Amino acid sequence: MKGLVIVSHGLLAAGMLDSAKLFLGSELPQVKACCLKADDSPEAFGDQIQQAIDEVNTGEGAIVFADLFGGTPFNQTLPLLSDQIDCIAGINFAMLLEYLSKRTFEEVDLPSIVQGGQQNIIEAKGYLSTLTLDDDD
């Protein structure tokens, strides 16, 4: 099973991991959160990401979920990419839950994780306007 490192500005990564535990249980193996603080240097944060990857990678590799494309957490992940290390930027909670729930049982297709995350982004009023009511109500 591939390890997972969630990286973000502020405490978003830790909060997402904490919320995932409500759905999937408190024991999520091979998962770490790295939270960039205002006083962290980019280089020190890159070292923190590398250490987290090393901790969750048991030989099958790791995936880094970053909060924002082009931000420091994403940018500090780029030099760490390899045949075994992947990164997805723009993480949302639906993507995280889908990945964590599938990774134990199957090889996870990263493009499908991205697609699932995109499909969970809706504007509520627009969505509700597409629903039709049953005439029998």
TrEMBL record:
Which Pfam families does this entry report, sorted A to Z?
EIIA-man
All copies of the PTS EIIA type-4 domain together span 1-121
InterPro entries listed in its UniProt record: Bacterial_PTS_sugar_comp, PTS_EIIA_man-typ, PTS_EIIA_man-typ_sf, PTS_IIA_man
Compartmental location: Cytoplasm
Primary localization? cytoplasm
List the GO terms this entry assigns under cellular component, sorted alphabetically. cytoplasm; membrane
Instruction: Name any Gene Ontology BP term.
Output: phosphoenolpyruvate-dependent sugar phosphotransferase system
Name of the protein this chain belongs to: PTS system mannose-specific IIA component
